[in-house]
Amino acid sequence: MGLLSILRRLKQSPDQEVRLLLLGLDNAGKTTLLKQLAAEDISHITPTQGFNIKSVQSDGFKLNVWDIGGQRRIRPYWKNYFENTDVLIYVIDSSDRKRFEETSMELADLLDQEDLAGVPLLIFANKQDLTTASTASELAEGLHLHTIRDRMWQVQACSALTAEGVQDGMIWVCRNISFRKKNS
Ligand SMILES: Nc1nc2c(ncn2[C@@H]2O[C@H](COP(=O)(O)OP(=O)(O)OP(=O)(O)O)[C@@H](O)[C@H]2O)c(=O)[nH]1
Ligand SMILES: [Mg+2]
């Protein structure tokens, strides 16, 4: 599923401009995911020092996907990108168990942010192509996701490398944007 087909689905929503925000620890796979959505080459991706943005528009509708670098020293800047976010997409390297606590703490911090209050949350349990990856439900349990009650949320197993699961996640994103707009 590419950015244009996401945009096509979003035309059911009353808003003319949609903003998706990709966050997660460094090495989680955010930029790979963004490039996969944009149908770009994913073989030479380097750690993001600032941010990447992909935009598509047609018939007066615009979709912006923001991908912010996840290295620790860049995380203080995440907050500059919160405003007007329609869906937060949080990416986790499901094979990197020793960083589950770190990613869980960063996510908890995001959920406390006023500018992201009520914003639907899709968690990509990425890198499912690796045999060492935890499943989406193990991740959900390990990160105590069931305690999230103040917004719509969903965990989706995926591989940004093979694109498996990415479409299912983006369909959820599209549905929940229109849902939020209709009810806000
Ligand atoms: N096996 C596997 N590797 C992946 C997957 N997604 C990303 N990677 C690899 O993980 C590494 C980091 O990917 P990036 O997309 O740069 O991660 P990022 O979240 O953008 O990292 P920062 O820009 O530092 O925040 C790269 O070597 C990718 O090829 C995946 O689904 N499976
Ligand atoms: Mg990156």
From TrEMBL:
GTP binds at G24, L25, D26, N27, A28, G29, K30, T31, G70, N126, K127, Q128, D129. PANTHER family: ADP-RIBOSYLATION FACTOR-LIKE PROTEIN 2-RELATED. GO terms for biological process: protein transport. Pfam families: Arf. InterPro entries: ARL2/3, P-loop_NTPase, Small_GTP-bd, Small_GTPase_ARF/SAR. It is a peripheral membrane protein. It comes from Gouania willdenowi. Its main location: cytoplasm. It is found in: Cytoplasm, Cytoskeleton, Microtubule organizing center, Centrosome; Golgi apparatus membrane. GO terms for cellular component: centrosome; Golgi membrane. CDD domains: Arl3. Keywords: Golgi apparatus, GTP-binding, Lipoprotein, Magnesium, Metal-binding, Myristate, Nucleotide-binding, Protein transport, Transport. This is ADP-ribosylation factor-like protein 3. Mg(2+) binds at T31, T48. Belongs to the small GTPase superfamily. Arf family. GO terms for molecular function: GTP binding; GTPase activity; metal ion binding.
